[in-house]
Design goal:
Blueprint: H1 4-12, E1 15-21, H2 28-37, H3 47-52, H4 59-69, H5 76-92, E2 95-102, H6 105-108, H7 114-132, E3 135-143, H8 148-158, E4 165-171, H9 183-191, E5 195-200, H10 207-218, E6 222-225, H11 233-242, E7 245-249, H12 258-270, E8 275-278, H13 290-301, H14 305-318, H15 323-339
Parallel strand pairs: 1-2, 2-3, 3-4, 4-5, 5-6, 6-7, 7-8
Helix pairs in contact: 5-7, 12-13, 14-15
């Protein structure tokens, strides 16, 4: 059970998020507002009706919802509003640093220019830093159910904006789209100075094999999700030695309910793996952001204060930032724990 003291502890603790899709923070209220602004008719009269339509049974049905929601994102102003709203919410939750995935192919494939997307996001990042002191960086998401040629084209489009992007990730439908499909793209990404991460989702085919490809063929710096590490003792030991970050997302969904994910996270933490808590696509998952996800995870499996704090430290230690900044963030967590 989460006590009031624990809730207050989670709320006040400095936090980082390493796995959130900015398009997945498109709350129903904003989706309706942007639809009206851009002359798009949606079959819902209220935000409540729209939120009630977010029903899905598996990754494929979730992705159908996720991508259809993006149709209202048309202009640079839309991407600004979307991103600033998320960062403003993070300010209210004491998330002081976040790395946001964005999916440009989902926009360029429907005629929205890459520059329109990234310039709107970037302006919001700058405003949130200046006005709220929320620090953020961008991860370029590659859609794995599109071709490697499309991925390479998207990577090329990113290069004029290299200073605005810290890493390249791989997401979307894993079935039939293993990491090695994009080896050339990620080799090029590394050569361009980007950090690397890839989704290895829960209950997908060949997940352990895909994690091995991420580690031994692609050479990622991080694995998003990666729950199936726990299925293989050799993989557990390898991950413990390498300390590659796993960005677990413990929000509930039909195919992998919250108690199961929370139990997996606790086991990973107790095994000495570098595991973190993240929200993924909070607008489509009951609007659970970092505080709610941490509190629900703690409650589900009885994490101690020190375990909750260690999750926060892991995120800052694994962030793609300089050592001085990292030490300052970790020191802030230590100071908070010592003073609470």
């Amino acid at each position: 059970m989460t006590t009031p003291d624990m809730e207050a502890f989670v709320r006040g603790m400095p936090k980082a998020e390493l796995h959130v899709h900015v398009e997945g923070t498109l709350e129903p209220e904003m989706r309706l507002r942007l639809a009206e602004r851009n002359g798009i008719e949606l079959p819902y009269a209220t935000a409540g009706e729209l939120a009630a339509s977010y029903e899905y049974q598996d990754l494929a049905s979730f992705l159908a919802l996720y991508f259809s929601g993006m149709d209202v994102l048309q202009t640079e102003r839309d991407f600004y509003d979307l991103t600033y709203a998320y960062l403003q919410r993070m300010h209210g939750q004491n998330v002081v640093y976040t790395e946001m995935h964005f999916d440009p192919q989902a926009h360029t494939s429907r005629g929205i220019a890459f520059d329109t997307v990234i310039k709107g996001i970037r302006r919001a990042q700058e405003a949130a830093w200046a006005e709220l002191e929320v620090r953020s960086q961008l991860i370029l998401g590659i859609l794995r159910d599109m071709s490697a040629e499309s991925a390479l084209e998207t990577l090329e489009q990113s290069l004029p904006h290299k200073d605005w992007i810290v890493g390249v990730g791989l997401d979307s439908d894993e079935k039939g789209n293993p990491p090695v499909k994009f080896r050339e793209v990620f080799d090029r990404s590394r050569a361009e100075g980007y950090r690397l991460t890839m989704h290895c989702d829960h209950l997908q085919e060949n997940s352990v094999q895909h994690i091995r490809q991420c580690l031994d063929v692609i050479g990622v710096d991080r694995i998003d999700h990666g729950y199936h590490v726990l299925d293989d003792d050799d993989l557990i030991e390898d991950m413990r030695c390498r300390q590659v970050c796993l960005t677990f997302c413990t929000t509930s969904n039909p195919s992998n309910p919250a108690p199961r994910r929370a139990a997996e996270l606790k086991r990973a933490l107790e095994l000495g793996l570098n595991v973190t808590v993240n929200t993924d696509d909070p607008a489509y998952m009951r609007s659970y952001y970092m505080n709610e996800v941490l509190q629900n995870t703690q409650q589900a499996v009885g994490l101690t204060r020190e375990q909750v704090a260690e999750l926060a430290r892991n995120a800052f230690r694994s962030a793609w930032i300089g050592e001085e900044e990292r030490e300052a963030f970790v020191g802030a967590v230590d100071g908070y724990v010592g003073g609470s």
